[in-house]
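In response to reviewer comment 3 from the previous cycle, which asked for concrete evidence that the modeling workflow produces usable outputs, we include below a single protein chain processed end to end. The sequence was submitted unchanged, and the resulting structure tokens are shown without manual editing.
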Amino acid sequence: MKPVRFDDYRVRYDCVSMRREQGILELVIHARGAPDKPCLWSNAPHEELSFAFYDIARDRENRCVILTGAGDAFCAEMHPSVAGLSRFSEGNLTPEMMDKMDQTGHDGRHLLFNLLNIEVPMIAAVNGPAFIHAELAVLCDIVLAAENAEFQDAPHFPMGIVPGDGVHLVWPLVLGPNRGRYFMLTGQKLSALEALNLGVVNEVLPREDLLTRAWHLAREICKRPPLVQRYARVAMTQMLRQMMHDGLGYGIALESLAMFGGVSVKD
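The workflow returned the following structure tokens.
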């Protein structure tokens, strides 16, 4: 089979931009077709990121990955096209709705599985508010945050959705069981400094210094032998991959069920 090459996938996506130098790949999440504007979350980046992570994981020339956002936000707003999709009227379930939910669940599973299948160290450079899929950042091996960064799980429980597509596993792991559940059930926002004090992030920096620091750390990582880098990442993420295999599908199933009004049990 033909090896995956960077030129094969680097310009494949509308919501993701990439550049690579000496094996260090910088991946920027952005608005569709607008590389300089912050991401507006919708089905498009949801799907594209799962495929982008898959391509990156299969490319053996990658030595380290830096994940960041465009503009002044990591991922803080939803696209208007997804407004109103959080709930469906009870009793009006159609095959088309079920198909849409199945596709969303499919993308949700592969989004996190493919991120964790990247077998080289990952550095998150959280350049601003991370309110939507902030777990993508905190699942990286090193998490850097700009001073204006904030963390929240906005699209789930605060919007009437079960926090089931991986956040139910990630936040209790990162914050601890009690703080993690509080974070999700209350819609709590954590400032960059609060996240630092709680161990969610490793460093807080001025935004203008964020990528410089990320690239410095990536270059230091790349001084190690390639197999040491690769196998260190594999070893350190084994528990995370097992956790996702055990609990991600069940969480997505509960999230989908609740969207359709849940199940009423009658005597």
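The first strand starts at residue 16 and ends at 21. We consider this sufficient to address the reviewer's concern, and the full set will be provided in the supplementary archive.
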